[in-house]
# Entry
Amino acid sequence: MGSVLQTAPNGTTLFPAELTNELFNLVRGKSSLAKLAPGSQIPFRGETAWTFTLDKEIDVVAENGAKSNGGATMGQVTITPVKVEYGLRVSDEFDYASNEIQLGYLRAFAEGFAAKLARGIDIMAMHGVNPRTGSSSALIGNNHFDYVVSQLVEYSSTDPDSNISSAVALIEGNEHEVTGVVMAPAFRSALAAMTKGSTSYEALYPELKWGANPDSLNGIAIDTNSTVSFGSNSDRAIVGNFRDFFKWGFARELPIEIIRYGNPDNDADAGDLKGHNQIYIRGEAYVGWGILIPDAFAIVRNDVSA
# Structure
């Protein structure tokens, strides 16, 4: 029986080409950061993103007059991909199935993998932790919002609207614009509960009622996601210029491994694959990100001393 899997020049087995684009699109739809910031392909070895700021205004110069120094500040952020994986056991019928059925197996796996990958991108880039364990990751290091963003606003459950205004003021004070807000469900619920006055029952943001998740609010792109407050994290919202100053991307090739023997997930209860007529499908991805200008962001936090 043939296989729908493809092989790279170096011999690595890859996801079928027709599923790769689907997976990227699914990730963009499920990750708040990917929704608010455009993604791009990145090389396995990583890449350097440059920031270039002109420090002064333009100068009016008389004919034959002396010109003064404008000045510029240049910086760089290295975007180094980290490898992530997800795997699961399925029946060994996969090995004997037609290409069409194999593709169905892999499409279902790719959809689930994309959802976990999307959630993982947010958790890693927001908090610097391994999504599966919830512990800080040495591979991620300090490359996450909780570490690099120093502009903090104390969360108020009774007036979250003013929290956003305060965050915007901090960012605009650094001469950056705000292009997006990603908020925890609790923050969205607090906004939805606000009314137009102390004696009014009319909702200030009726479009947020009943758990709704609109694409924008007050002309700003928004998204609600539990990844903001993942685990015991005290973050409630992240505000900033995601469009210009958060960069992320995938290495284009996605390795996949079909394992037929042993206990690759170290599951003592599940036991040996061959002994249970199973195979193990393991997908990998290389994803990288960088926060180019930290002061273009602010975090609304339940406890700013945390």
User: Anything to note?
Assistant: The chain has a mean pLDDT of 88. Helices lie at 17-30, 32-36, 99-127, 145-148, 160-173, 185-193, 242-245. The radius of gyration is 23 Å.
